[in-house]
Amino acid sequence: MKKQAAEAKYRVKGEAESEEELEEKYVRVYIMGKEYMVPAGLTILKAMEYAGYRFIRGCGCRAGFCGACSTIYRLKNDYKLYTALACQTSVEDGMFLVQLPFTPANRSKYDLEKVKPTANTLLVYYPELARCVSCNTCTKACPQEIEVMDAVQAAIRGDIERVANLTFDCIQCGLCSIRCPAEIPQYHVFQMARRIYGKYIVKKARHVEERIKEIREGKYDEEMEELVASPPEKLKKLYKSLGRVE
Ligand code: SF4
Ligand code: SF4
Ligand code: FES
Q1: pLDDT tens-digit map of 103-119
Q2: 138 Cα: distance to centroid of ligand 2 (angstroms)
Q3: Count: domains in the chain
C-alpha cells in the first residue's frame, strides 16, 4: 500500500504534502487500466484531463447537453457496469474508467417531406425495433433518466406522439444503444419520431407563424441593424434594463 501511495503521489506531481493529505484530498482511479490519484470532486472528464489525457473528440459542451462524453466504468468489488456522462459525474475512489469517444449505430435515411406519420412508419425505417426483448437495460443506461424501453414499446405500437414526449430530453449520447442486446439504435428512432411529431402531429403555433411573417416582411430590420451596430456597453445597458442580467 505504501509503495502504491508513493507511486500515486508521483502521479499527482507532488501536490499533496503527505500520504495522509494524499488519501484525504485525492481519490484513486484507473484510466484505461492505469492507476492515478486525482483530486476528489472533479468530474470524470476533468479527472482524465488532470491525469494527462487530452480530448480532441468525445467532449463538447461540458454541461450535459451535447451527449459527446459517454463513459462506462466499474467500481471495485461491484459487478455492475455503470454508464454516465463524463462531464456530469464526479470521480469516486476505486473507479475503473474508460472513455467512449464515438460508437456508431445504424441510422436510416429518409426525406421528412415524404415520410408519413402512420402507425408503422418507425417500424418501416427501423425494423430492428421488433427485436426488443423488454429487458429494460436501455432505461438503466440512460443518464437522462428517460424511460427508454417505454419509448421503444411506444415506437413499436406506432404511438409517435408518446415517443416524442417521452424522449424530449434525449441528448443522443448512445449509451442505451451500446447496452441493448437487440442492437436497436434507440436514439435515432426517437429523433425520427420527434421530427415527424414536430412536422405532422403537433398543432402549429399561430403566433410563431405570424412572427415569422413579420420578420420576412422586414418589420424588425431597422431595429436589428441598430443592435448589430451597437457597441458592447450599449448592449449591456440594454440587457440590464430588460432585467435579464444581475
Ligand atoms: S435515450 Fe439513449 S441516447 Fe438518449 S440520452 Fe438516454 S441513453 Fe442517451
Ligand atoms: S435494451 Fe434493447 S432489448 Fe432491452 S428493452 Fe431496451 S430496446 Fe428493448
Ligand atoms: S461534454 Fe457535452 S454532455 Fe458532456
Answers
A1: 789 999 999 999 999 99
A2: 6
A3: 3
